[in-house]
Amino acid sequence: SMGCLQSPPASNYAAPPQANGAAASIGHVDVIFFPEPSGKMPCRNANTPRGCHRHNCNYEHGPTLIGRFLQYLNSATRTLDICVFTITCDEISDAVMALHKRGVKVRVITDDDQANSLGSDIDKFRQCGIPVKVDHSKTHMHHKFAVIDHRLLMNGSFNWTRQAVLGNQENVVMIENPKLVHDFSQCFEKLWSQFRA
């Protein structure tokens, strides 16, 4: 089949055992709900030593949701496997390319309809040496997940676009759960071997 590994049926589900009145620990969990409340992307100069000196800066100077998202992305030290339908947000793609230049082993899987669309950052990735695989089938590679250092999973409805950051109702969950990380990594490897450049 074309999809990822099949999950067992849900009929065997049982609530996790309670430990001291709390669910058994599954590691770090966080969720970000977009869109940005300010409707603005972060100012690139605001957090530099010199700061922003523009009188009418149209960018956000305070904390942002996309800033939080990028903190997770930038935590990568060894590997970053990205499997995302659409990638057109320059702030995110710039961070991905910076990680690649820093020596993080980055791989990207995306969909052909989106890879060839106006504003797609896939060509930029290829030009800087990041390996990219594309789903050329009639159906869509519609996932939106990334696995960082085989440690952290980022997954949700969130496409890596400005529209998703500033306009859409979106979610992305960050979770350090070994089983989920393993399952999504296996899904990535299956798609990586299936798709071509």
Furnish the topology, listing elements before pairings.
Blueprint: E1 18-19, E2 22-23, E3 29-34, H1 65-73, E4 79-84, H2 90-101, E5 105-111, H3 112-115, H4 122-127, E6 132-135, E7 144-148, E8 152-156, H5 162-166, E9 170-175, H6 178-194
Parallel strand pairs: 4-5, 5-6
Antiparallel strand pairs: 1-2, 3-9, 4-7, 7-8, 8-9
Protein described:
The chain is an alpha+beta fold and 197 residues long. It has a single domain, classed as 2-Layer Sandwich (Endonuclease, Chain A). Helix content is 27%, strand content 22%. The chain has helices at 65-73, 90-101, 112-115, 122-127, 162-166, 178-194, and strands at 18-19, 22-23, 29-34, 79-84, 105-111, 132-135, 144-148, 152-156, 170-175. The strands form two sheets. The chain has a seven-stranded mixed beta sheet with strand order 3-9-8-7-4-5-6, with helices on both faces. It has a two-stranded antiparallel sheet with strand order 1-2. The chain is globular and about 50 Å long. The model has no long low-confidence stretch (mean pLDDT 89).
